Amino acid sequence: MVEAMAFDGEYEPSTWDWVAEQVAEYEASGGTRANTLRETGIPIIIFTTVGRKSGKVRKVPLMRVEHEGQYALVASKGGAPEHPGWFYNLEANPTIMMQDGPEPYETAVRLIDGDEYDLWWERAVSVFAPYAEYKVKAGDRKIPVFLTAEQ
Questions:
Q1: Measured at the alpha carbon of residue 90, what is the angle toward residues 25 and 126, in degrees to the nearest 5?
Q2: Positive or negative: CA dihedral 80, 81, 84, 87
Q3: Which CATH class is domain 4-148?
């Protein structure tokens, strides 16, 4: 398990400018600005992980799929045929910092499957309808979903 201080390592922002800018603005404002997916009005969360190869701190904005204090992290990558890089970071080390509002907190995630997956997938699609399209586009790749520990 990663200790909290591991998240104090060197931060490497996303190579996508709009993602890096959103993370910076979200964190600087305590989650009061840049807290939706661009102009959609759909809320996002930010999670922090450590790169399994680089050891660098990575911050990822994702759609806010929350139910009773738990969050689903949907590794859709827009329906691409491969998983996003952060999937492998979570697989290697499931300890993350989660931020939904002003204060981040440490939690663990686990990959879900079966009925639990089906339930959370439905919740994810109800928040962000394009996930249904991504599932079709992904073809044979089952889009992974991680679930945070109960708070």
A1: 65
A2: positive
A3: mainly beta
* Residue that the structure tokens 């964190």 belong to: 27
Q: What is the pTM of this model?
A: 0.92
Q: Which residue's structure tokens are 């249904």?
A: 132
- Give the integer Cα–Cα distance in Å for 94 and 49: 8
Main-chain dihedrals φ then ψ at residue 86, nearest 5 degrees:
-65, -20
Instruction: Give the residue extent of every domain in the chain.
Output: 4-148
Paired with 110 in beta bridges are 147
Sequence-ordered list of residues with C-beta below 8 angstroms from that of 40, at least 6 positions apart, any chain: none
- pLDDT digit string (tens) for 44-67? 999 999 999 999 999 999 999 999
Strands 145-148, 70-74: pairing is antiparallel
Residue 37 three-state SS: coil
Which amino acid does the sequence have at 61?
P
